[in-house]
Amino acid sequence: MEKGFNIMFKKTDQELEKMGAIITTREIQQQPKLWQEAFDNYTAKKSEIDNFLDKVTSTFPNQKIRVIFTGAGTSAYVGDTLRPYLNRAGDTSHFVFETIPTTDIVSAPLDNLRSDDPTILVSFARSGNSPESVATVELAEKLIKNLYQITITCAPEGHLATKAENEDGNLLLLQPALSNDKGFAMTGSFSCMTLTAALIFDTSDEAKKAAWVDTMIKMGDEVISREDEIQAYADLDYDRITYLGSGSLSGLTREAQLKVLELTAGALTTIFDSSMGFRHGPKSYVNGKTIVFDFMGNDKYTRQYDVDILEEIKADEICEKVVGVGTSDDNDFSGDNFFIKAGDKDLPELYQALPDVVFAQTFALMNSIKVNNTPDTPSASGTVNRVVKGVTIHDYE
């Protein structure tokens, strides 16, 4: 395939239709607008959110409350991205933040749910119809004496949303209508749900949060406008892709690598890790046909470790390309960087994660075309589905 063929966002709808890529392309492209809508929805619901949390904390003034972020696949990675930052910026005097996938809860409920611990179960779901999502809620309601729920979902007609509508102790927060992705891969659903939960539990000043969202939106728009630079990476000669990061951006690496696996139907292999953890064995994955990306955070201390691994891999001369992704700061990688110029070096990594994921989604989209796949329906065999099928939920007594 000729280089530069799969620059996507400037193609006409007709061109994208022929490529089987119109849904996924437009859903990636529209995300910055959806973030504004998600922020406006949060602002409109803020008093209701505050009242909900105040009720829970006042009921248990001398006891910390478990906040379990749960979901399956991409929805689980929302929690992985949230938790590190919220351990610093959330209300840790009242809450203990945890991430437990629905798949872990359903398969081993007593390993993950504690009867006597007051708990807020935060369910993330695009459709709200995945069997594990439904079963997790049922198990939590059966096993936890003092259970509260926040349901963050994109489909008002989904099982979780309709169930939550009329339940006391269950706060339903619907995401922008267009975040209910129609494509196979979750894109806007991931970023909107992540943003909503960040805004709920981040104790930072509301004016700061508004400014961060504004910066995020500008960054996301910039990433979309610079697709030709992302395409230049996609034109390189590789068959392995590595994503690294620290803190919340380490959590994001799981979602970044999943997009490649999903949209290429596994034609390209991927790996993810923390910047520090990569040396401890997983670095063995890197060979001459590997491209390595590191999401560089803005925390000055932590960024040193992101830059260290980038410099090390560059010096090793063992891969096709190694790239730093993020905002330029005093400590930058000496090699190739995709710096988002609209970024702010004081932007917390959780908010940096969303323009970063647009970069990763765009790269995955281009790779889907590169391997002659159709991004909107990438699993030709039908063995992997938009809403998971084939799951048996066994009775729990």
UniProtKB/TrEMBL annotation:
Q: Which UniProt keywords apply?
A: Hydrolase, Isomerase, Repeat
CDD domains (UniProt xref): SIS_AgaS_like, SIS_GlmS_GlmD_1
Annotated SIS domain ranges read: 56-210, 229-378
Gene Ontology annotations of biological process type:
carbohydrate derivative metabolic process; phosphoenolpyruvate-dependent sugar phosphotransferase system
> What SUPFAM superfamilies would the database entry show?
SIS domain
Q: Which PANTHER family match?
A: D-GALACTOSAMINE-6-PHOSPHATE DEAMINASE AGAS-RELATED (PTHR32502:SF3), N-ACETYLGALACTOSAMINE PERMEASE II COMPONENT-RELATED (PTHR32502)
User: Which protein family is named in the record?
Assistant: Belongs to the SIS family. AgaS subfamily.
Q: Which reaction does it catalyse?
A: D-galactosamine 6-phosphate + H2O = D-tagatopyranose 1-phosphate + NH4(+)
What name does UniProt use for this protein?
A: Phosphosugar isomerase
Q: Which Gene3D superfamilies match?
A: Glucose-6-phosphate isomerase like protein, domain 1
One Gene Ontology cellular component term attached to this UniProt record is: plasma membrane
Q: Which InterPro entries match?
A: GatZ_KbaZ_carbometab, GlmS/AgaS_SIS, SIS_AgaS, SIS_dom, SIS_dom_sf
**Cited Pfam families:** SIS
Supply the PROSITE patterns for this chain.
SIS (PS51464)
How far does the signal peptide extend, from start to end residue?
Answer: none
GO MF annotation list:
carbohydrate derivative binding; hydrolase activity; isomerase activity
